[in-house]
Amino acid sequence: MFQPVISGTGVFTPEQTITNAELVKAFNAFADKENARNADAIAAGEVKPVGYSSEEFIVSASGIHQRYVMDKTGVLDPDIMHPTLRERSDDEPSIMTEMGVDACKKALAKAGRDASEVDLVICAASNLERAYPAVAIEIQQALGAGGFAFDMNVACSSATFGIQAAADMIRSGSVKRALVVNPEICSAHLEWRDRDCHFIFGDVATATLLERKEDAKGDHFDILSTRCLTQFSNNIRNNNGFLRRTREGAMEDRRDMQFMQNGRKVFKEVLPIVSKHILEHIGDIGVMQGDLKRLWLHQANKSMNDFLGKKVLGRTPEEGEQPNILQDYANTSSAGSIIAFSKHSDDLKPGDTGVICSFGAGYSVGSVVVRRA
Questions:
Q1: Which residue in 74, 114, 128, 165 is a FRET match for 22, CA 20 to 30 A apart?
Q2: d(Cα 130, Cα 279) in Å, to the nearest integer?
Q3: Is 156 known to be catalytic?
């Protein structure tokens, strides 16, 4: 049995941002258009008017101040309200591959490794660009990696589930080095015309390099244990899969085909599952609450993370113990906890222990207990 470690992480951040102010302006313009179009039906009580959004509402509901996106032009056009990414030919690199390769190269550079030394690539994301061929195989080829590659989807827990799969293969000796890459174009499945959720998501890609401890060249984190859990629920759902093609295009424009969630039920049902999962996981491997120096949680909602931080640590987290990045990135699905880990782990000292945890649709929960080597 080999000891798996995390020796590098990388984050691809899109160039374009949408502030809350920009988003609210576009949404309220859309609301005015819809209400004018349906004025007679609204007056007759047959249709409810579209209510305004506000910056105060968004921050209060989520803690989000902005988000990075691959295309802001279509999202901010009240007549479109979704990304208008160019459809690529079969001979061109896919969007997710371009995002993922950037993150992978950063993770490899941090670990002092070349892509040719990688023998497993897992593309783990909440929405895949196509059914097949696997995006992971395209990323593998674009990088020049060896071995094999495959896609996986466990929604917002995809990254931690991917890390468990890779860590298990390293432990067993079937692979030496693995990249788990999470290209998330969340803007493509969000319903930007729904006031209750139009502010939630952003786009990003992350990558995590895992290898045998004996092979690690520099600073790294030992993976002490991994654990995953699923429990079926319809309270978070996406029937569409990926991108609307064009404004007039091939896909039927139905609200139930985009991102849907029952936020109150999710908050009530998921938090007890996640806190119990983490506490049982660390307890089973002999790690006490007081041993934890850092929690890198899924970046869905500030209130959820604050609740979990207090529950897992047994007290209110001190500054930096449970870092949030969603104020800048918004919810980036599976990539969120990896962004937090990548940006808020270098300060830990040898022997410091923390938990990377993600949770979301499914329901699904994945936790990775790591210790600075």
A1: 128
A2: 37
A3: yes
